[in-house]
Amino acid sequence: MSDFSEKQIHPNSRDCLRIIQLTDTHIFAENAGKLLGLNTRESFEAVLARLMKEEIAPDLILATGDLSQDASEESYQYLLEKLQPLNIPCFWIPGNHDKPEVMQKILNHGNMMFEPHIVAGNWQIVMLDSSVPGKVYGNISEPQLDFLQQRISNNQQRHSLVVMHHQPVAVGSQWLDGLGIKNAPELFNAVASNDKETCFLWGHVHQDFVGEQAGVQLISTPSTCVQFKPGSTEFSAGDEAPGYRYLTLYPDGRVDSVLHRIHDIAFTVDYSIKGY
Ligand SMILES: [Fe+2]
């Protein structure tokens, strides 16, 4: 992921930038693929149906990793076929279940792309690949940390949304907290010189988390499929509904976000499974 070009987005509204975050879709090659008892294609399609019905003119979609469960070409092809017709630019990053080289091959078509730097009005978005081949935990490479720091110092008039798959802070679940970004202090250091607002946004933890650390706003978003139980010591599935997040970024640096859950789809989570 060494392509350090820049993508310009012209927001639909002059007053704000509207973003949809979809994360941890965990799509399988097969239609019938289930994660912890939940059919991930069905819940993803229910999420898509809801957001197409309710959301007004989003400027872009951020797909923040674990897009596939099995890293198959079929799973990414399915995502391309579902997201392409929305006609909204969709920027993706890999998660621990993904294979970046397969994503590059399938998901760089039309409105779907990997793009490390996006500029939109008073905001810049930096997309980081926190995945580590063969590992569940995350790490931000030195070149990406340098890139982030450079984008901060070269865009001092802009606020920064920094997007990654893994969590940069503990979220209060012991088993998950060991599977976040190992070099998180370096990530916070990379944005420490920012005089404007900074917000970190991620997936991976399959639960809602909102916080603040060292002046950085922190947001995680539930999966479009099965959730993890907040506050758990060991791996546990949760019974919260599938969801997505709608973020509104204002020129003054304010970030409003609304978490939407799809309560009206019937699903059964298999709580007896002790891993994913
Ligand atoms: Fe995940």
UniProtKB/TrEMBL annotation:
Domain of life according to the entry: Bacteria
GO molecular function: 3',5'-cyclic-AMP phosphodiesterase activity; metal ion binding
Claim: Zinc is one of the keywords in the record: no
Keywords associated with the record: Hydrolase, Iron, Metal-binding
Keyword field contains Hydrolase: yes
Known EC number: 3.1.4.53
Annotated CDD domains: MPP_GpdQ (cd07402)
Domain Calcineurin-like phosphoesterase per the UniProt entry, residue ranges: 17-207
Family stated for the protein in its record: Belongs to the cyclic nucleotide phosphodiesterase class-III family.
Protein name as annotated: 3',5'-cyclic-AMP phosphodiesterase
